[in-house]
Write a structure and sequence with these properties.
Layout lengths: L3 E5 L2 E5 L3 E2 L1 H10 L4 E5 L7 E2 L2 H6 L13 H18 L3
Parallel strand pairs: 2-4, 3-5
Antiparallel strand pairs: 1-2
Helix pairs in contact: 1-3
């Protein structure tokens, strides 16, 4: 997946291919070094990116027909996005 991380002054922008479950976006925003953070979803071919909780409950977006990446990949996306933003805020 192609990830883009941008900094515009005190604003962070991160793009990804997925339709995220809210938990992943909240994790990214909570850990962002920016004053304001935007997470841009479906910036590519995109599928759902379910959380462990969604998978456990068998939610629509958590079934194999709706997603190509599981909850573990979602956590990797969070970590990689936050790391990319951290690089942009190094002095």
């Amino acid at each position: 997946m192609e990830l883009h991380a941008l900094r515009l002054g005190d604003v962070a922008i991160g793009t990804n291919d997925f339709e995220l479950y809210t938990d992943f976006g909240i994790q990214m925003k909570a850990r962002s070094p920016a004053i304001q953070t935007f997470v841009v979803q479906l910036a590519g071919p995109g599928t759902y990116l379910p959380t462990e909780r969604a998978k456990a409950f068998g939610c629509y977006g958590a079934v194999i027909q709706s997603s190509q990446v599981g909850p573990e990949g979602g956590q990797v996306l969070v970590e990689e996005t936050v790391a990319a933003w951290a690089e942009l805020w190094k002095d």
